[in-house]
Design a protein that fits this description.
This protein is α/β, with parallel strands linked by helices. Helix content is 38%, strand content 13%. The structure holds pyridoxal-5'-phosphate.
Amino acid sequence: MNTNQKLALLGGPPIRTRPFTAWPIFGKAEEKRLLRTLRSGKWGRLDGAEVAEFENRFAALHACRHGIGVVNGTVSLRLGLMAAGIRAEDEVIVPPHTFFSTASAVVEANAVPVFADIDLDTFNLDPRAVAAAITARTRAIIPVHFAGQPADMEAILAIARKRKLVVIEDAAHAHGAIYRDRPAGSLGHLGSFSFQSSKNLTCGEGGLITTDDDALADACRALHNCGRMPGGVWYEHHVISGNYRLGEFQGALLNAQLDRLETQTKTRDRNGQYLASRLAKLPGLYPQKRSAHCTRHSYHLFMLRLDTRAFGAPRAAVLQALQAEGIPASSGYGLSLPRQPMFQNKAFGPFLPQASAKLDYGKTRCPNSDLICREQGVWLAQSLFLGTRADMDDIVRAFEKVHENREVLNRWSKTS
Ligand SMILES: Cc1ncc(COP(=O)(O)O)c(C=O)c1O
């Protein structure tokens, strides 16, 4: 394509003025369930039936026998670690390129996050880096299915089996994603999902733990319910915990939203694959590589690497130009997790009182994650992928236009 058009950033006509699909999507079904819950007066997990229904449906959809709804996808990770018996100062391997919670939940479980770098093509944990990060203190691995593409679970599970490690999938991006015909959340010992506002399935705030293991499920149920044993005496508390139960209004919303998930996931995957195939043709653009084991990508994010030298302009300028063209692209995480002030300063509050003296996250080396955070990562949000192929074509045209105008953009970026 040769648009020969001036960049919108510099006063030309934008590629797109119409908004993309807005998020969240809701309608009569949500209204009906919410009103029914309101009028029932049964607003808490222990009173009504919405959360219980959702837990069963969501778990079944992810090929697990148990689902435990909790207040968010950070708590689900922490409770998963506690249920799995992770003890004070045990080590848990996590990727550095993920949301804060994947690692902060480990600290809040009083365990030590150890970072293993990601693969530069798939943006998921590199199993070789995982193997290299293992020590005598390692007890668990938390692979993140980044952006909605399942991690290399076969290799990770093989390492875990050999070392008797617990695997907790952080599936916060991966509702409905499928790995070798098996759903995300059913591959490790436990799975952790988030229903926070931006997620592919949302009720504003919420989370859920999946597992097929009866003992782990019982432990999670106790942990999310003030340490009460399932079926036990009401005022008997057996383990340290709190009230992390999901409420009935969230359950009502999630049940209605869940009816939409399958169609939405198929649409996102179709559009995501199409966009990846088109963008990969431009110099310097590397959309997340689809692994052979990925049966279905849930595209919570569409992420690509922008090699600024090959593309011909720096990321910040490219993003500004895309935004001016009507494409809401962003740069994603600005820092690898070990570079976050919390880790650099070991601001762990009451956690890790002994281990923290020996820890030095300044020494952690995760060059792939650093490169992506510092200069190459570009994100597009999931709701864009609920639109039409014409929406994808607009995104492609905007990238093409920015690339064609890279020299002028480069000059602009040096003077602005
Ligand atoms: C990869 C990942 N893990 C965990 C979480 C935490 O979920 P929540 O915000 O529901 O606590 C998020 C959410 O943003 C996430 O992106």
